[in-house]
Design a protein that fits this description.
This protein has about 350 residues and is mainly alpha-helical. The chain is built from 13 helices and no strands. Among the domains are: about 70 residues; about 90 residues; about 80 residues, Serine Threonine Protein Phosphatase 5, Tetratricopeptide repeat.
Length: about 350
């Protein structure tokens, strides 16, 4: 596939190939839209095709929309609808053209360009062109959001399900390989990012999925090398040994294949020969600790209990006791009253106030 420029040239050739069946002897230059339109659906459609061939996309869309609105039951209205989708694609409005091609395929399933798979293929190409490419000062495409590529892969899945054996199938296969290559480059970029951050546990899932989902793309040696290094960092010794052995056997002339021999020698010198019974590290995800239970705001609080009878509250002293550092009061001595005359002597103790 090569990239966006190659895809652009390829789609331009297809547009030229389809211009003949869409055109009906159209003139090259239409009238000024500010003056008037044609009188019939055919005349306006021919004007739209003429403007399309002159690469005047906006006027082509205006004429085609006029046919769709003014003559909705004409056979030219269907062709005008497809012409609008093509014009949106040529203007670089790829999200709009993707929706337009998909809607055309749903509304006109018996149209010749729907039955041969061209409309479904163009929906996939539109999604691919809408994906980031990282031109100019923008980051590379593999560092950015890959939603557009995944949408394109879904559109291609629909194409292969419904139009297998179509003349467009070889082109669809090339487009699928290019999309898978870009998605794989994104996975490798993310895995390297985690490895640089010393987080091999976060990288291993992406590398294992990349090894299983994207074989034969042309980056197998890079995937196997990163997978072996990550296993080694995680102390998965036997998995690392097996991965480097696979890399050396499948890609002996690749520079990663030559590096694999050095890693295999290091593993043998450090950990000895292969041992299938070697203990493996625990790779189960950590169990999160449960959060603390919130306090119940409706739970009544117990009132403070007072001191038991005969017991002093904190900080208070019992009757007859002195606080620390306080002198004890002197004990009261009994006082004797003098006996009155004629009465017997009697003593009565009294307490000092």
């Amino acid at each position: 596939m090569g990239g966006r420029s190659g895809m652009r040239v390829y789609m331009h050739l297809w547009a030229l190939a389809l211009a003949a069946p869409l055109g009906l002897g159209a003139c090259k230059t239409g009238p000024d839209l500010a003056v008037d339109y044609g009188q019939t659906a055919q005349e306006n459609y021919e004007l739209a095709v003429g403007e399309f061939e002159d690469r005047d996309w906006e006027e082509a869309v205006s004429y085609a929309d006029f046919v769709r609105i003014r003559f909705p039951f004409s056979r030219y209205a269907v062709e005008a609808e497809l012409l609008v989708a093509r014009a949106e694609f040529e203007q670089g409005n790829y999200a709009v053209s993707q929706d337009a091609f998909k809607q055309f395929g749903r509304l006109h399933p018996t149209h010749r360009h729907v039955r041969n798979g061209w409309v479904a293929y163009m929906a996939a190409v539109s999604a691919f062109m809408n994906a980031p490419d990282g031109v100019g000062i923008m980051p590379p495409y593999y560092q950015r959001d890959q939603t557009g590529l995944r949408e394109a892969l879904g559109e291609l899945g629909y194409f292969f399900d419904h139009f297998a054996g179509s003349p467009l199938e070889p082109n669809a296969v090339k487009l699928r390989d290019e999309i898978n290559r870009r998605l794989l480059e994104h996975e490798l970029y993310v895995a390297r990012f985690y490895l640089d951050k010393k987080r091999p546990e976060a990288a291993i899932g992406r590398l294992e999925a990349a090894h299983a989902d994207f074989p034969g793309i042309g980056l197998d040696a890079e995937v196997l090398f990163l997978l072996g290094v990550t296993y080694l960092q995680m102390e998965e010794i036997e998995l690392s040994r097996g991965t480097f052995a696979e890399l050396q056997a499948q890609h002996p002339t690749h520079h990663h294949g030559k590096q694999a021999r050095l890693y295999l020698k290091y593993i043998y010198d450090t950990y000895g020969p292969a041992d299938p019974s070697r203990a493996r590290p625990d790779r189960s995800p950590p169990k999160p600790s449960p959060p603390p239970r919130p306090k119940n705001p409706h739970k009544p609080t117990k009132p403070e209990e007072g001191p038991e009878p005969g017991e002093s509250a904190p900080g208070e002293s019992k009757p007859g006791e002195s606080k620390p550092g306080e002198a004890k009061p002197a004990e009261a001595k009994p006082e004797t009253k003098p006996a009155s005359a004629g009465a017997s002597a009697q003593s009565t103790p009294t307490a000092t106030p």
